[in-house]
Amino acid sequence: MQSVMRGYIRSVDAVNYRLGRVMMYGIFVLMGILLWSSISKTFFLPTLWTLEMAQFVMVGYYILGGPYSLQLGSNVRMDLLYGSWSVRRKAWFDAITVLFLIFYLCVLIYGAVSSTAYSLGYWKDAPFSFLAGVVTGTEEVGTLERSSSSWRPYLWPIKVVMIVGFVLMLLQCISELFKDILRLKGAEI
Predict the structure, then answer these.
(1) How would you write the pLDDT of the chain (189 residues) with one tens digit per residue?
(2) Which domain holds residue 177?
(3) From the UniProt record, which GO molecular function terms apply (predicted)?
């Protein structure tokens, strides 16, 4: 069982590490969009797409970079008591709290899948089977949801990014849970 956990940890950590390293450069994309927004408002006609696109890039940057942040342990933590605890006590505490995070992420994934199905024109009560049908080609997409801004981009791409980010965060949380279990057993990770 420990070898299965180690294999899972290695594979999930590798994917999230590589994606996180790529997403670090998303801040430069965001800066470029905002710079172009400032330049176009000052010297040319203001563009309609820049602020909303900056919001979309920020969502992708934040959500897809989250698993990397969790993997590195750079998430915000109240260190008042935690810093003085032993490795074993930290592992117990982390194992318990990550279970709450896993539950929360499952709720977020359900909401993101429902919202994505809605943005693809599905208004019934089985969003998971609808999205599976869209992927396999057995379901057809309805009227696509668009933003209410004057630019009016489709919203399904950013909602798909949210699903991918939440799933990757869930996988990383399970990896962190496995690391805590291995620490409690005294095994090497």
Answers:
(1) 889 999 999 999 999 999 999 999 999 999 999 999 999 988 988 888 998 999 999 999 999 999 999 999 887 777 788 888 898 999 999 999 999 999 999 999 999 999 999 999 998 889 999 999 999 999 889 899 999 988 999 999 999 999 999 999 999 999 999 999 999 998 888
(2) 2-185
(3) transmembrane transporter activity
4 φψ region: left (φ > 0), alpha (ψ -120 to 50), beta (else): alpha
Residue labelled with tokens 């592992």: 91
CA–CA distances in Å: residue 19 to residues 26, 60, 64, 67, 69: 11, 11, 7, 9, 11
